[in-house]
Design brief:
The protein is α/β, with parallel strands linked by helices and 368 residues long. It has twelve helices and ten strands. The strands form two sheets. A seven-stranded mixed β-sheet has the order 1-7-6-5-4-2-3, sandwiched between helices. It has a three-stranded antiparallel β-sheet with strand order 8-9-10, covered by helices on one side. It binds pyridoxal-5'-phosphate.
Length: 368
């Protein structure tokens, strides 16, 4: 977490600990004002209105609220959902839960570069489709889906469109209006904010999107998400998003250069056995997904205890199966098990990139 974010949060853990739902006293009103100020600042960055931001515990909850809330609200006339094979488990498993409730789920395949063809969406949706959900940026391979085109297809057919933008918000500019999105999930810890807070954007105009809430209680957040709001986390999320927005272009350029530096170091030393996954241009600046032919990455990562690296996603806890994302790109299970994801961020320096590249090369050569 960015130290400037922590600084903004601290007062709301101590001197300003009022409950934002208690408007009969000054501390409560101060807390409510801080929440509404954060809501306005977050909405502005997303091209949204403040009342369209529903605070949640993160993107997992936002995805579940978008999907289960949409499907259950429309279950009288809709029994179909559309998503993509490369989605995050928060979307795929929410869809599987709805399948168990009787919905049909279409999981569209992607091309070998990880991208979905918007026309494929047009072909499968019908008046019985409750929602289409396609992520903006992939968490394993970093590719950016053509969500504006997909959203336009959905709008054309009168079907609501959700995007899991947990990897995109804070890293690239995201505007719900210009993209034509109805529902959008985000998570603060993905953009140097605190863990345990996120939001769901729920369009309230042209068209007004209605949801069935997942949890019942005091009717907070317009009845969509009952429960006392975590004021320090919300304040931190707003500050974190602002800091990202101030540095978007400079930071993207810096990360792209570091990523290409990492790639050239690795590919020179490991030439012939290294390949990149995902579309080369339509991608996040700080993500590099690599396959090291013939190298068991479980062993590689064990040897690389001094480099914070992962084989795929941190989200499928203790799941040794090959990545469903890489398999969807057409990699064999063996190739998928020989892949690593390198993530570069705000605190990553050129010196660290060089050191990490040297260590990866050193251990990879030992294992080959
Ligand atoms: C991290 C992530 C999530 C889960 O977010 P949490 O806030 O940790 O629940 C969902 N989708 C994507 C694409 C992610 O990267």
């Amino acid at each position: 977490m960015d130290p400037r974010v922590l600084e903004a949060m601290l007062p709301f853990f101590s001197e300003d600990f009022g409950n934002p739902a208690s408007l009969t006293h000054a501390p409560g009103r101060r807390a409510a004002a801080a929440v509404e100020d954060a809501r306005e600042r977050i909405a502005e960055r997303l091209g949204a209105q403040p009342r369209e931001i529903v605070f949640t515990s993160g993107a997992t909850e936002a995805d579940n609220l978008a999907l289960l809330g949409s499907a259950r609200l429309q279950s009288q006339r809709c029994d179909h959902l559309v998503t993509v094979a490369t989605e995050h488990p928060a979307v795929l498993d929410a869809c599987a839960a709805l399948e168990a409730e009787g919905f049909r789920v279409t999981r569209l395949p992607v091309a070998s570069d990880g991208l979905l063809d918007p026309e494929a969406v047009r072909e499968v949706i019908s008046e019985r489709t409750a929602i289409v959900s396609v992520m903006l940026a992939n968490n394993e391979i970093g590719v950016l889906q053509p969500v504006a085109e997909i959203a336009a297809v959905c709008r054309d057919r009168g079907v609501r469109f959700h995007t899991d933008a947990a990897q995109a918000v804070g890293r690239i500019p995201v505007n719900t209006d210009t993209l034509g999105i109805d529902l959008l999930s985000l998570s603060a810890h993905k953009f140097y904010g605190p863990k345990g807070v996120g939001a769901l954007f729920v369009r309230r105009r042209r068209p007004r999107v209605r949801l069935a809430p997942l949890q019942h209680g005091g009717g907070h957040e317009g009845g969509l998400r009952s429960g006392t709001l975590p004021v320090p986390l919300i304040v931190g999320m707003a500050r974190a998003l602002e800091l990202c927005a101030e540095e978007f272009e400079r930071e993207a350029k810096r990360l792209r250069e570091l990523r290409e530096r990492m790639w050239s170091r690795l590919s020179e030393a490991l030439s012939g056995r290294l390949s990149r996954n995902g579309h080369p241009e339509a991608r996040l600046p700080g993500n590099l997904s690599l396959t090291l032919a013939g190298i068991d990455t479980d062993r590689l990562l064990l040897a690389l205890h001094d480099v914070a690296l992962s084989s795929g996603s941190a989200c499928s806890t203790a799941n040794p199966a090959p990545s469903h994302v890489l398999l969807a790109l057409g990699l064999t299970p063996a190739q998928a098990k020989s892949s690593i994801r390198i993530g570069l961020g705000r605190s990553t320096t050129q010196e660290e990139v060089d050191r990490a590249a040297a260590r990866i090369v050193q251990e990879a050569l030992k294992l080959s």
